[in-house]
Each structure stands twice: as C-alpha cells, then as structure tokens.
Write a structure and sequence with these properties.
about 280 residues, alpha+beta, Gyrase A, domain 2, 6-stranded antiparallel β-sheet, 5-stranded antiparallel β-sheet, about 20% helix, globular
C-alpha cells in the first residue's frame, strides 16, 4: 500500500451497545454525545474525579440509528482499563460493554486510500487536515499497512500540533487543558455533569492552565521523547513527539514565555529549541 494509508495497530475498539448506551457515555465523558449523528465521531476523554485524563478516545455512533451502538477508538493499551471503568459506572444501565480489539482495528488515510470493506469510516474531529479514520477487520492489517503510511500519519499529526497520549502526555497525571483537549474539540463546556467536570470547568473559567502542549522547532537530530526541556538550566517542560525539525513539548507556559521574551536559550537535552511551532499559544 502507499504512504496515504496507515495501519494504527496500537489502537483498540470498545463496543458500547444497548438502550442506555448513549445516556451512559453522556454522564461519564468530557464531550456531548446526545446529538451525535449516525456515523459521526467525537473526541473525548474519561477523567478521574480529580479531573485528570485516564484515557482519551473517539466515540463513533453506528450508522444504524436504531442500533444504540457506539464504537470507542482508544489506545489498545488502555482498552482493558476502560472496559473495567465503564462497567463499574454502568450500575443498572441496560448496556453491554465489549472489548472487540481482537477482531476490529483502526486505519487512517486519505479517503481514496481507505479499503472498500470498512466497518465504518469517520472524520477525525480534532483539527482539519487529519486523515479520515476507519474501523476494519483486524485480519486485514497485513494487506493494508507499511512503515511509510505510519510515518506519514505521525508527520501529519506533529505538523498539525496534535498530541498523542503516552508520548506527549502521561495518562493519570495530565489535565485536559494541558493536553489541549479544549482546543481539539474534546470538551463540551455546555453539557451537564460528568466525572471530573468541576475541575475542568474551574480551569476554563479562571484561565488557570499552567502547562500546555505546544510546538517547538529544532535543527539536527530530534530530541528523545521524555527529554527534560530547560531554560538557563531550569526545567520548564518535557519533550514529546518529533519529526524532522518539528516537535511537541509539554511546557510551563509562564516559564516558556519568560524565556522566549528574554531571548533565553531553551534546550531539550542538548538540542536547542525555538518556541514557535504549531499550537504555540
């Protein structure tokens, strides 16, 4: 296959189906699914009561409006924990929660490159320009993917300033604003209560997000993921994803601003950085 299609083998699928499926998701996650149309996707997260991200994902409504079925496109490493949490919060709701990752998976690509036998296709709702995604039978992976497609997807994501959990931020330690969920259409500030909602609302209304994932530029070899980002020897953040000359870092906004305005050198490891990449606030 060409570089216009990426097999995202590190993604899993959770199926939530039943008469109360929509209501269950609506009262738990950061985005509004009440008006989610058949075949449409929303980016969202499940938070701790303290407002930190346990998992981020896409919720996709089945094309059949009568089915009361939603697919959750989530990092495969988080599938078991997500199923456990959703089951715990289900209470008496009439809904089944299933791990379908052994049989279903995710590919992303130019619409013309997506296979014709997809279970479901949907637009990535985070920012314009990201490839369209599709749910496919996992048995098709060997026929569809190659390294060029996966690299092209990573390059596209970084150039558009879109972070990836587990690389650009740590699950269980990061607030939604820090991971830019508010800017990536991952939070609905008008919906009713959900887990961690009070913390997220407080940060939004007070404008108190101290850290953000922002874009950086550099010359030479990309810094290692997890490299400490420093200014005058003082830690101001951590390096995340990078491609040739461009990367993402989780930075203390006030300290990064001070360094930029003062012309202070900012480095990740030994690599000098310029704070003017995609998403610079």
């Amino acid at each position: 296959m060409s570089g216009n299609l990426a097999v995202l083998s590190d993604r899993g699928i959770v199926e939530v189906v039943g008469p109360d499926a929509r209501d269950l998701l609506q009262r738990l996650i950061t985005n509004d699914v009440d008006n989610l149309k058949p075949g449409e996707a929303r980016y969202a997260a499940l938070l701790t009561p303290q407002g930190k991200i346990t998992s981020d994902f896409f919720v996709v409504a089945d094309r059949d409006p009568v089915a009361s079925r939603f697919y959750i496109d989530v990092p495969e490493a988080l599938v078991v924990d997500l199923v456990k949490k959703l089951t715990m919060y289900r209470l008496r709701a009439k809904v089944d929660i299933r791990n379908e990752s052994e049989t279903l998976g995710i590919v992303a690509g130019d619409p013309s490159a997506l296979p014709g036998d997809c279970r479901l296709t949907f637009d990535d709702p985070r920012v314009p320009g990201l490839w369209r995604r599709a749910i496919v039978d996992r048995s098709r992976f060997a026929d569809l993917g190659d390294d060029s497609g996966r690299w092209a997807y990573r390059e596209q994501r970084v150039r558009l300033g879109v972070p990836e959990g587990g690389i650009d931020f740590i699950y269980g330690e990061t607030f939604p604003h820090e991971a830019n969920l508010d800017r990536l259409h991952g939070v609905d500030f008008k919906k009713g209560c959900y887990i961690g909602q009070e913390v997220v609302s407080r940060v939004q209304h007070r404008g108190t997000a101290r850290k953000r994932i922002v874009g950086v530029r550099f010359d030479g070899e990309p810094p290692m993921v997890g490299s400490d980002i420093t200014a005058d020897g003082i830690s101001i953040g951590v390096m995340g994803s990078s491609i040739d000359g461009l990367g993402l870092g989780l930075l203390r906004i006030d300290k990064a601003d001070d360094a930029r305005l003062a012309g202070t050198s900012v480095v990740a490891g030994s690599t000098p950085l310029t704070l003017d990449g995609p998403g610079w606030h």
